[in-house]
Design brief:
- This protein is mostly beta strands.
- 6% of the residues lie in helices and 50% in strands.
- It has 3 helices and 30 strands.
- The strands form 8 sheets. Strands 5-4-3-30 form a 4-stranded antiparallel beta sheet, with no helix packed on it.
- Helix 2 packs across helix 3 (32-38).
- It is globular, with a radius of gyration of 21 Å.
């Protein structure tokens, strides 16, 4: 929790009747508009949805208090999370398990969570070992990268059924959709490439070779560039989406995995799994401007809607690190003991009056 919240809970004044009352209550009474914004000092503005791989669940965390709002059981070994633009549903990929030694062969699926009731309202069968997941900007479709099936499943969010299956490269892992919704960029880990899908025809229209295993992907808010991590080379490739060519290569930390771009497009944040850091890339110069130490083996990262904080999921230390993007320092650590947090997505709550999450 923030130190400035002590102002609310720790400061008292005397009323005209010589009664001690909290200072924040005076604001609530005197200024209705301010009251609407601050009279619940610990009220959540945002929820963080975290796929807890080891506990077969998705945790919902109040970003203001770090308190757990809900634990939602999903299917086996969840890994990715994406939330619809209207904030009403979260789509969680469940990798499943198919092996001779597994006591039960678990199906691969996507759990659909109603964010109002914090409950699973649908389960959608997809390809084998679904990992990355992304929602189109209009909320109509969800694209799921199926690592073991070398395909992408397209889910209609109205019916929660798969309406198309697109063959891509080998070992598709992550996926991002351009802001105009026209194209989906899919990283192919094994074949070391990015497949570009036309979302109107659901056909692959380009393949960008990277020369090494491709992992995470994010697209700038203006749609001009896709940032792709290649863990084996410790590089981040910058793809021009107009030409689908690599126009820059940034050397990051050890084992870069996930990437997220600030809402204003100024910086890209990259988790480095084997040195437990986050590289901050200035997108104007494509140079690393800061390196932030976080928890052990960070895998995924998400940025709050206001761009002021970045959350990393740290698998080995079983916690989340909260980075202040103004100072590029860790300002909070949220424990998630024994759960192996992976995918993470952050949404504004329906009653939120601002985009501020903390």
């Amino acid at each position: 929790m923030h130190e400035d919240r002590k102002w609310f809970s720790g400061s008292w004044v005397r009323s005209r009747d010589n009664i001690l009352i909290p200072r924040w209550l005076l604001w609530c009474v005197a200024l209705p508009l301010v009251a609407a914004l601050v009279c619940s000092p610990v009220a959540a503005q945002c929820d963080a949805y975290v796929a807890q791989n080891a506990s077969n669940s998705t945790w919902v965390i109040n970003t203001m208090t770090d308190a757990m709002v809900a634990v939602i059981p999903v299917q086996f070994s969840p890994i990715g999370v994406a939330i619809t633009p209207n904030g009403q549903f979260a789509y969680v990929t469940n990798t499943g398990a198919v092996c001779d030694l597994c006591p039960i062969n678990q199906p691969s699926s996507v759990s659909v969570i109603d964010t109002t009731t914090y409950s699973v309202v649908a389960t959608v069968p997809v390809g084998q070992y679904p990992a990355g997941v992304a929602v189109t900007p209009n909320g109509a479709f969800v694209y799921v990268a199926n690592f073991n099936s070398n395909s992408v499943s397209v889910i209609d969010t109205t019916t929660n059924t798969v309406t198309a299956t697109v063959t891509v490269g080998t070992g598709p892992w992550d996926i991002a959709i351009t802001p105009n919704g026209a194209f989906a960029y899919v990283t192919n880990y094994t074949s070391g490439s990015v497949s570009v899908i036309n979302t109107t025809t659901n056909a692959v229209v380009a393949t960008v070779a990277l020369g090494g295993p491709a992992w995470g992907v994010a697209i700038t808010p203006n749609g001009a560039f896709a940032y792709v991590t290649t863990p084996g080379s410790n590089n981040i490739s910058v793809i021009n989406t107009a030409t689908n060519t690599v126009v820059a290569t940034v050397t990051g930390g050890c084992g870069p995995t996930s990437v997220a771009i600030a809402p204003n497009g100024a910086f890209a944040y990259v988790t480095n799994s084997c040195d437990s850091t986050v590289s901050v890339i200035n997108t104007a110069t494509n140079a690393v401007s800061a390196i932030v130490a976080v928890g052990s083996q960070p895998q995924n990262i998400a940025i709050t809607p206001d761009g002021l904080f970045a959350y990393t999921s740290n698998v080995l230390s079983n916690n989340l690190s909260v980075i202040n993007t103004t100072t590029n320092t860790v300002v909070d650590t949220i424990q998630a003991a024994g759960t192996q947090p992976l995918g993470i997505a952050i949404k504004l709550r329906p009653e939120a009056l601002t985009k501020s999450c903390r």
